[in-house]
Amino acid sequence: MQSTHIRSFVHRRGHITQGQRQALETLAPQWVIPLKATSLNYEKAFDRSAPVILEIGFGMGETTATIASNQPDHNFLGVEVFNAGVGKLLTRIEEQSLQNIRIIQHDAVEVLQTMISPGSLAGVHIFFPDPWPKKRHHKRRLIQPPFIELLASRIAPGGYLHCATDWEHYAHQMLEVLNASPLIDNTCEGFCPRPEHRPLTKFEARGLRLGHGVFDLVFKRNEEPAPKD
């Protein structure tokens, strides 16, 4: 019997523009990697050898494209399920002539289980995941202990996990879950200032002007796991 897990998303009938639809049809064969039941060969997928950063849930891809442009010496693997977001990032890749981004359009848990080898990632970005604000939906939140143990196992020693959210309750849940993992250590005392590699989005800037807090957490994969209380 196949094991199941709580997905971090629900399929919604979101609007997709003609441009995004066209990008999916014409650009996906070049930049989108299909799900396979074998570990991904990064060097073959990116046509070069470079540290790989995984981004889970890149939305419309604005931040992904900016970071990839600013860090040409890294490869970026984006995982997203929604057509509109994938189509928009494909458009950004084409418009900005970015060569260091690849996309997998599938559930992140299954991607981690089947395609990402243990200890192979230089870093992971999870920026503003769905907060599922209603209490009865909290179980759908992405940052849960089983997921973090799986994710942390895929990060190389010395690599990092960077999460960000603008929901304070979720931020404290994230901090509790991450602190409990024996595989990763907090690089700050609690929350961190926004690292330079994460650009300030228009949405975030507007929230800050309105007094909304944004919480960054940056954890490092340790060399030898130590028990945590």
From TrEMBL:
Any one GO MF annotation of this record: tRNA (guanine(46)-N7)-methyltransferase activity
InterPro entries per record: SAM-dependent_MTases_sf, tRNA_(Gua-N-7)_MeTrfase_Trmb, tRNA_methyltr_TrmB_bact
Main function: Catalyzes the formation of N(7)-methylguanine at position 46 (m7G46) in tRNA.
Family according to the record: Belongs to the class I-like SAM-binding methyltransferase superfamily. TrmB family.
One GO CC term on file: tRNA methyltransferase complex
Keyword tags: Methyltransferase, S-adenosyl-L-methionine, Transferase, tRNA processing
Name the record gives this protein: tRNA (guanine-N(7)-)-methyltransferase
Organism: Orrella marina
Enzyme class, UniProt record, top EC level: transferase
Annotated pathway: tRNA modification; N(7)-methylguanine-tRNA biosynthesis
EC number(s) from the headed UniProt entry: 2.1.1.33
Catalytic activity, reaction form: guanosine(46) in tRNA + S-adenosyl-L-methionine = N(7)-methylguanosine(46) in tRNA + S-adenosyl-L-homocysteine
Pfam families the record matches: Methyltransf_4
